[in-house]
Specification:
The chain is built from 25 helices and 74 strands. It is α+β, with helices and mostly antiparallel strands. The protein is globular and about 150 Å long. About 40% of the residues are buried. Strand 11 (about 435-445) and strand 12 (about 445-455) form a beta hairpin.
């Protein structure tokens, strides 16, 4: 048997949320016993214990009077104390009033001070613990002076975990009120509190004060919590004095008057203002300069936040604590992230809560590496800097610290941001074929969201206030329902039994067999469970606590309802609604409705209910129990009524129709508002309807989902506030709560999303994903600050602005293609080329595709052509070049015929010229510029043949590989063919060109290989360059047609030409095997020992660094090329899919699997002006826009529409295309079908309301 005893549970530290007792198990092994004790005054803790072990709670009674007297005698004998008869009578008398053990101890300490001749009047004994403690404090004040004792003990009471003697002495040295009480005549130059006075005061209360270790030092604390409570009540009840004491403590821990800084004070003798040094220590966050002697200032981190809070220095609390990077960083390093988040709980401030939420989101990255804190905060808080001053200061502090921790600076938001409407996302575990029971309710552990798939035994639980997941609970298979107060969970099984569980621990309370029958209407109140079954006598009424059937009705009912107070129950029998009084089930009233009731909703303020009937009418019933009468009022009729919701304050009743929401005043039964349509500009499928509705916690807003949109209306005006888009999936239900201002939407794919309705006044995107899925490729224009990206399942490319990270425009390639496979953005960002899978006769080859040339400013297509193999822009962006395949043969490359299309920009004029016959590309062509003249250069393999003129027989057949150069700035069609033997001395016939690299100084770096006869042809890849070949290079001047420099041996034989990366100044090259080449001849080789993702790494800052994705695709790393050292990394949170570096060699853009785009800037060079570069980012230099309420609402709606237009999922377009195709092949209805439709429509319209007819 193992017995664990935990005493005084109420004194447990708040570190790691220990006071919430989540660590205390509800169920343990049979051979383990846990005994815990707690003070009844700790009500919150007692409530938690009651929920965890209600049956095992025992209240320890106080002693009886005789026991107190016996204990007192034993203690007096032990301490050799004797009293006379009158004094003993006084002692016995006080034990009639209080008999607690602590009271006996305190009485003994008071008796120790008695003299034999003292009377009861001379030494008054308190009759309670509080009175005795008050007497002790009063006695100390009489001895040492009221002012000094008030301030000394006030500081002790103000510190939550005690003060050391040195801290108390230093803080008193800042207290000019206490010092003026001591220095009444002589004013010393160094103004300090005399240590002797403090020692005397502490010596008098020594037996009531204990030394304990806290934060690595010994501190003084009251031995009993009652002392601290009485001291706080006595010395801190005066708000002015309380603020003054905390103000001095805050100054001490801030280090305001540390070192030789002189603090001003008023001389009490002459009344002049003077200054004096207090000789106080500095208060850095870290003591020591190296890791060996480093020690964190835990006292400052622990006590400074409550001191600033209680002294009402809220701005300093934000700037010095919760929005201060040094505090956040060192607090996590010294303790933990959880402790830091606990610190945030003391100050309920919107700005600080956003920082807290950002830290919580960054938990996994911070836990792995503390250096990621700085980039996590910047990447999440950047969108909030324009609105919140202190968050802007925090981001600025992070910017200044970036170069020490991470060389990559976020330009814009790159992670999920707190403060937006969308708070969090998760998965319920359900699928399209497995329904999920979802509940949102308040329990002892907070606001909980539960989700249980019908065929699963696991209930997943989340706490909505913070979005934290809770431990799963195990429940049997079946539907799950929760009580109104959240204390009970009910599960129906096999249509014959119901099981009742506790929600906090999942313990089974009981199970009831009710026979056979499918439950159809279920109502779970605080005390009762009532439900009807489809066929048979019902409803059943079950008491939850006792798990017993209270009543079973002898007739069939369709619906049942219980009022909020659990005093009345209503059910129907046919068209009659019958009211019963609980718990005796006495019939009180019967009323007839117009049709069979389908749903009943009670109002608790008065005995009234709303009834929805099968005839699609809404009626109200007011019961008069005394006179056994009732009044029925018909409110509206609508054939598409789906659901009814009562507001949290019961002021409104919301009726959900198919495409209309009726807002009814619950008192007057008047339709106040008709929320009919979504704002203009939202493209919603007309076949969709509202799938749910609800109210915010304060009933100021109505939320309702339709398709994949969540609309929010203002109840007071009926105008739309926001229209939020969930994702590509439709929303099938929505849940709201009366205690927390959040809405939970459940999507078709089983995903749930939590929306914070307090944040709908901010234009903040929870995540900056621009596609619903993976981003395949990114192209950059740093000159204009734009990037172009496309996803893996879309036929559109989206233009993203570097300034804010938002989508600027969409380039939709064509409705006829399924997806893009490539794209290109011009250097100046004015033009773009999108490429999709080809639809021509050449679609069997992956190389020939459908291309569109775009003017980005106007969104106009300048060219749309299929069968394109290569597309490119010139550096001056004055022309675009397309290589089009006119004829293609998969077997013989010599039969391939190409045509070159040259498009002048921006006028769009085109020039066509033919490609050399019997020639195939060895590498992709390039446009090289020299002295403002553009040249098309490429390496081609040509099949040359000679024939006999008379017999036409082939005389010779050979392969030659040439460098082709054409001046495309002129209209001449001539094309130069250059042999490698003309450029390289000693080159034989087996030396061939391999690849071309245009340089920044308008030259060409041409690679060649040795021992190559010709290149093999692959039908899908074209001509293939050998993987292992001896290489050389030449630097070629196009205009002068000469070789400027020859490098005979370059790179390694196994360096793949296709994977080579060469820096802009050609000082560094990197091959696919991570071999780095540098120096004059590229012969200095060393290996980069970093495992990058293939194809997802680039050279940056002229080859000084490598920026790339690790093989896991979860981190972006920066590696120095000189020694291969990892200089920093950025977490992706998910997986990245692609990476590109801009023309400036600094801008890094990363595409992610979840559709996000991360825009970063590399700042690492020693000459980099860090502050100047960062402050030029639009996200750092933007100014806040102050809008009126109306302008803000209009701006937010307009922003919603823009985001939806820029994030339209591809599934919508595909479904629209499918509908067009299906409608095109649909048979036209005949005359009889049309006549039947008209007749049924007229019949149904007779009972329709005016609003429904308008629809």
């Amino acid at each position: 048997m193992l017995i664990i005893l935990l005493d005084s549970l109420e004194s447990i530290s708040t570190n790691e949320n220990g006071h919430k007792l989540e660590w205390l198990p509800s169920r343990i092994a049979q051979n383990v016993k846990i005994i815990v004790t707690a003070d009844c005054g700790a009500t919150d803790m007692v409530k938690i214990l009651q929920h965890k072990c209600e049956d095992s709670m025992t209240v320890i009674p106080p002693f009886v009077s005789l026991e107190c007297e016996n204990v007192m005698k034993v203690m007096m004998n032990t301490n050799k104390i004797s009293v006379n008869i009158n004094q003993w009578k006084a002692i016995r008398e006080v034990f009639q009033s209080c008999r607690l053990p602590i009271f006996i101890n305190l009485t003994l300490e008071s008796v120790k001070l008695w003299r034999s001749y003292d009377t009861a009047e001379d030494n008054h004994l308190g009759r309670s613990v509080e009175e005795v403690i008050e007497n002790i404090l009063i006695r100390t004040e009489k001895t040492h002076g009221s002012v000094l004792v008030t301030h000394v003990l006030g500081y002790l009471a103000a510190s939550s975990n005690g003060l050391s003697e040195s801290e108390l002495l230093d803080i008193l040295s800042l207290d000019d009120v206490a010092l003026n009480n001591i220095f009444t005549s002589l004013q010393p130059k160094i103004r300090r509190f005399p240590p002797a006075i403090l020692v005397q005061i502490l010596q008098d209360i020594d037996i009531y004060v204990a030394e304990m270790e806290t934060d690595g030092i010994l501190v003084l604390r009251w031995r009993h919590s009652q002392f601290n409570e009485i001291a706080r009540k006595r010395y801190l009840s005066n708000e002015e004095l309380k603020r003054y004491l905390y103000f001095n403590m805050a100054d001490y821990y801030l280090g305001t008057w540390g070192g030789s800084t002189q603090k001003p004070y008023t001389d009490s003798v002459v009344g002049k203002e003077r200054r004096a040094c207090r000789l106080l220590p500095e208060q850095p966050y870290v003591f020591g300069t190296c890791d060996i002697d480093k020690r964190y200032n835990l006292r400052k981190m622990t006590l400074l936040p409550p001191c600033l809070l209680n002294s009402c220095r809220h701005d300093e609390l934000r700037s010095e604590i919760f929005c201060n990077y040094s505090f956040l960083y060192n607090r996590i390093k010294a303790t933990s992230l959880q402790q830091l988040l606990t610190d945030f709980d003391v100050f309920n401030d919107r700005e600080c809560n956003l920082v807290s939420e950002a830290l919580r989101m960054s938990g996994s990255a911070i836990l792995y590496d503390m250096r990621s804190l700085v980039i996590e905060l910047i990447g999440r808080l950047l969108p909030l800097t324009e609105k919140y001053k202190f968050i802007e200061q925090l981001v600025h502090q992070c910017d200044l610290d970036l170069q020490r921790n991470c060389p990559l600076v976020p330009n814009v938001q790159c992670y999920s941001t707190p403060g937006g409407p969308l708070q969090s996302e998760g998965h319920t575990g359900g699928t399209q074929y497995c329904p999920v029971d979802v509940g949102v309710f308040k329990s002892s552990d907070g606001i909980l969201l539960t989700a249980k798939p019908f065929y699963s035994t696991r209930v997943r639980v989340w706490e909505l206030s913070r979005g934290d997941p809770r431990p799963d609970m195990m429940m049997p298979v079946g539907r799950i329902h929760h009580s109104r107060d959240g204390n009970f969970l009910v599960v129906f099984q096999e249509n014959k039994q119901v099981k009742i569980f506790r929600s906090d621990c999942g313990d089974l309370i009981g199970e009831i067999q009710y026979g056979f029958g499918v439950p159809c209407h279920i109502e779970v109140s605080k005390k009762y469970l009532a439900f009807t079954i489809e066929k048979g006598c019902s409803p059943f009424v079950i008491e939850l606590e006792d798990s017993q059937i209270v009543h079973k009705f002898g007739y069939h009912s369709n619906t049942v309802a219980i009022n909020q107070n659990d005093t009345f129950l209503a059910c129907n029998s046919g068209k009659s609604v019958i009211l019963f009084e609980l718990p005796l089930m006495q019939r009180r009233c019967v009323v007839e409705t117009s049709d069979v009731p389908k749903d009943i909703t009670f109002i608790s303020s008065k005995l009234k209910c709303f009834v929805s009937t099968k005839g699609k009418t809404i009626e109200s019933i007011v019961f008069d129990v005394v006179n056994k009468r009732s009044k029925v009022n018909k409110i509206l009729t609508d054939l598409e009524i789906r659901n009814c919701v009562l507001s949290n304050t019961e002021a409104f009743f919301l009726v959900q129709s198919g495409r209309c929401l009726y807002l009814i005043d619950s008192v007057s039964d008047v339709i106040v508002r008709k929320l009919v349509d979504l704002p203009y500009g939202i493209d919603v499928d007309l076949a969709t309807t509202f799938t749910g509705a609800g109210f915010s916690a304060d009933d100021s807003k109505v939320v309702a989902p339709r398709a994949n949109f969540l609309a929010i209306w203002d109840v007071a005006t009926g105008s739309p506030l926001r229209v939020l888009q969930s994702s590509a999936c439709y929303i099938k239900s929505v849940f709201t709560s009366d205690v927390v201002n959040k809405a939970v939407t459940i999507l078709d794919d089983g995903t749930f999303q939590v929306w914070n309705l307090d944040n709908i006044d901010t234009d903040i995107l929870h995540s900056n994903n621009i596609f619903p899925g993976k981003i395949e490729k990114i192209s950059l224009s740093t000159e204009r600050g734009l990037s172009l990206a496309y996803g893996n399942e879309t036929c559109e490319a989206k233009i993203v602005n570097f300034g804010d990270g938002y989508v600027k425009d969409i380039l939709q390639h064509s409705d006829e293609v399924e997806r893009l496979n490539n794209m290109l953005l011009s250097k100046d960002g004015r033009f773009a080329i999108t490429c999709a899978d080809g639809t021509s006769d050449f679609q069997s080859s992956n190389a020939f595709d459908d291309h569109v040339l775009w003017d980005i400013d106007t969104g106009i297509k300048l060219l749309h052509s299929s069968g394109i193999r290569f597309a490119m822009f010139s550096d001056k962006v004055n022309l675009a070049l397309f290589v089009k395949c006119v004829e293609y043969d998969r077997k013989e490359w010599i039969k391939n015929i190409y045509n070159v299309i040259q498009i002048g920009l921006p006028d769009g004029q085109d020039i066509h010229f033919d490609f050399p016959d019997n020639t195939e590309f060895v590498c992709s062509p390039k446009i090289a510029t020299q002295n403002t003249i553009d040249y098309l250069v490429f390496i081609g393999q040509t099949n040359r043949r000679t024939y006999d003129h008379e017999t036409k027989q082939e005389l010779a057949n050979w392969i030659e590989i040439r460098l082709f150069v054409k001046n495309i700035s002129s209209r001449s069609k001539e094309m130069d063919r250059i042999r490698i033997q003309n450029l390289v001395d000693g080159a034989d016939d087996r030396t061939q060109f391999l690849e071309i690299f245009p340089t920044d100084d308008e030259k060409l770096l041409i690679l060649y290989g040795r021992n190559i006869d010709c290149f093999e042809y692959n039908p899908d890849k074209g001509l293939v360059i050998p993987e292992i070949v001896m290489k050389g290079a030449i630097l070629y001047d196009i205009e002068r047609e000469e070789c400027l420099r020859h490098i005979p041996g370059i790179f390694r034989p196994d360096s793949f030409v296709s994977s080579l990366l060469i820096s802009k100044d050609f000082s560094v090259a990197l091959d696919g095997n991570m071999n780095l080449f540098s120096g004059e001849s590229y012969r200095n080789v060393h290996f980069i020992d970093t495992e990058f993702s293939p194809g997802n790494y680039r050279l940056a800052l002229n080859g000084k660094y490598i920026v790339g994705l690790l093989s896991s695709k979860r981190e972006i790393v920066v590696v120095r090329t000189t020694d291969g050292k990892n200089l920093g990394h950025v977490y992706v949170h998910g997986e990245a899919s692609c990476l590109e570096v801009g023309d400036d060699d600094r801008t890094v853009v990363v595409g992610c699997e979840d559709g996000r785009v991360m825009i970063l800037t590399l700042i690492l060079d020693t000459s980099d002006p860090v502050t100047d570069i960062i402050m030029k980012f639009p996200s750092r230099s933007g100014e806040s826009k102050i809008l009126s309420n109306w302008d803000m609402r209009y701006s937010l709606l307009r922003s919603d529409l823009h985001h939806m237009r820029c994030r339209t999922p591809d599934t919508s377009r595909l479904s629209a295309r499918s509908r067009r195709r299906s409608s095109s092949g649909r048979r036209t209805p005949d005359h009889q079908t049309i006549s039947t439709i008209v007749r049924l429509t007229r019949r149904n319209s007779q009972n329709r309301s005016e609003a429904c007819c308008l629809q």
